[in-house]
Automatic annotation (TrEMBL):
The active site is at 15 (nucleophile). This is Phosphoglycolate phosphatase. Its EC number is 3.1.3.18. Specifically catalyzes the dephosphorylation of 2-phosphoglycolate. Is involved in the dissimilation of the intracellular 2-phosphoglycolate formed during the DNA repair of 3'-phosphoglycolate ends, a major class of DNA lesions induced by oxidative stress. Its cofactor is Mg(2+). It catalyses: 2-phosphoglycolate + H2O = glycolate + phosphate. Belongs to the HAD-like hydrolase superfamily. CbbY/CbbZ/Gph/YieH family.
Length: 231
């Protein structure tokens, strides 16, 4: 168990992909359907989970750009605005259609959130996923009641690892960053938290751009969110 003084924390910011929900299956499906709408060589590409795990984390636009550049080895996609626009429209269409169908809530998440709620902690979801997709996913997985406030990758001008979404969350919560705990799965979350001045807890099971989280500067790492115990 990881003991954390309840008196030091006024609210919790929780990341979505890789922390609450394993969404790699959704990303793989949406991207596979997206490339099928594009010309060759993209159309024939088989999207594998391990590649998506490395590319995910910095928002959907970044994920798509990363995939296109991976397929054409950076030759065409980088400056091809028309290709990106086509891919982005197709991706949104397909993601909306399958959102949540190929993803699962990680073990311990529901119990942990219920416990934090019982401890009187307001919670806000801060994700780099577009806010509408995040809200639909939380709804689909029965997690929406924990999060009256969802801040997506398109809610403010900059995404994590920039501190802006976290500072915006604190402002909306009316809490100071130093007493607002960030819970996430990647260096994005940890860097954003450090820059905002929030304490940060990471889970070991998420994506972190395909790297282990032990190297990331964080206050603690847990294997399950239920390991966090308020004392
Ligand atoms: O959509 C992404 O790139 C990752 O989203 P996250 O911030 O919820 O991990
Ligand atoms: Mg994440």
């Amino acid at each position: 168990m990881l003991d954390w003084p309840r008196s030091n924390v006024d609210a919790v910011i929780v990341d979505l992909d890789g922390t609450m929900v394993d969404t790699l299956g959704d990303f793989v499906q949406a991207l596979q359907r997206m490339v099928a709408d594009l010309p060759l060589p993209y159309r024939d590409f088989v999207v594998e989970q391990a590649l998506v795990e490395r590319l995910v984390g910095k928002g959907s636009e970044n994920l798509i750009k990363g995939l296109l550049a991976h397929i054409d080895q950076g030759v065409a996609a980088t400056d091809n605005v028309a290709l990106f626009e086509q891919a982005w429209a197709s991706y949104q269409h397909h993601y909306r259609a399958i959102n949540g169908r190929y993803s699962e809530v990680y073990p311990g998440v529901r119990d942990a959130l219920a416990g934090w709620q019982q401890a009187g902690l307001p919670m806000v979801c801060v994700t780099n996923k577009p806010a509408a997709f995040a809200r639909d996913l939380l709804q689909e997985k029965g997690l929406a009641p924990f999060f009256p406030l969802v801040i997506g990758g398109d809610t403010v001008a900059r995404k994590k690892p920039d501190p802006m979404p976290l500072l915006h969350a604190c402002e909306r919560l009316g809490t100071v960053p130093g007493r607002t705990l960030m819970v996430g799965d990647s260096s994005n979350d940890a860097q954003a938290a450090r820059a905002a001045g929030c304490p940060v807890l990471l889970v070991s099971y998420g994506y972190n751009h395909g790297e282990p989280v032990d190297q990331v500067d964080a206050d603690a790492v847990v294997d399950r969110l239920t390991q966090l115990r308020w004392i």
